[in-house]
Amino acid sequence: xxxxxxxxxxxIIINLLFLxxxxxxxxxxxxxxIRTLYKCILVPIIISVFLYYILKPLNxxxxxxxxxxxxxSLLTLIISLIAALLILYFFIRYAILEFxxxxxxxxxxxxxxxTIASQNPINSIVNEIYKSININELIKITNNMxxxxxxxxxxxxxxxxxxxxxxxxxxxxxLLILFFLLKDGFKFRDKFIDLFPEKYKDFLSETLCNVDKxxxxxxxxxxxxxxxxxxxxYIGYKIIGMPNALIWSFFTFILGxxxxxxxxxxxxxxxxxxxxxxxxxxxxxxIVFITVQTLKxxxxxxxxMSSTLKIHPLTDIFLVVTAVSxxxxxxxxxxxxxxxxxxxxxxxxxxxxxxx
Length: 356
Known about the structure:
The protein has 356 residues and is mainly α. It is 86% helix and 0% strand. It has a domain at 196-356.
């Protein structure tokens, strides 16, 4: 009878939750407000929290030396900005040369299938591939996409002042949030706990501490995984002679923060280039891909992420794929740590027998 009462309560809560969602979905201006808040506030907060856990070790070093928290936070931001600007300056200089070479490569990617077939009988397979996938059209689409993106980027710089101001304001907002997180991050938890009755404070303190540990472990771990992945793929590209190795490895680093599917997405354009260059480049790129993926799955991820979130790989895959379908890259980026946070909270709720 007690079990039935619990089941009825749970079913009523679930039905009320779905009913609330349906009712809110009928009020369009609420969703408009939510979308605005998401773009203007939530995204900068997510980025700030992510950067906070990356810069937290450096800030802790200054704090341990007895430096005032405001000064240590400011020093952490200044050092990080200088390092980021130096890296960006080096990358932009190198990327300009790489993009010039990439432009030449794209125009020269059109293969002469008759020559390929006549050089080696094995390469007749490639001739059939070219016929079936229409590589020339694929290259043309890629080239047009790059040209359109470049034109839009230039247009946004010279013509759309509002976008520039908006981007600047968001960057400034991220820096301000990051500064206060570094300076007063420990106070936010205490002030939040003080809002609740005394009997829940131990539960909240332990839960928030575990959530903080889980987020810290995930962000730093994912950073190391993405960095390791980009270094390995850069070395592999250099060995096989892949053009513009730095640019593609940089994309691998950025997309590496999206679990599982990020690495596969980063391989799309290099795969197109490999197909255009013939069967030998396809084989070499396949070897690089298999080697890096094996090292990632067998060495890098177990070594770095083994004791962080304790989430089954299949759960990660389903979470990321679902998030990409509904919310795009940003949703895929935050879904795993969000799931880990909810998992910690629910487990603590059952431990303290708050859910009855």
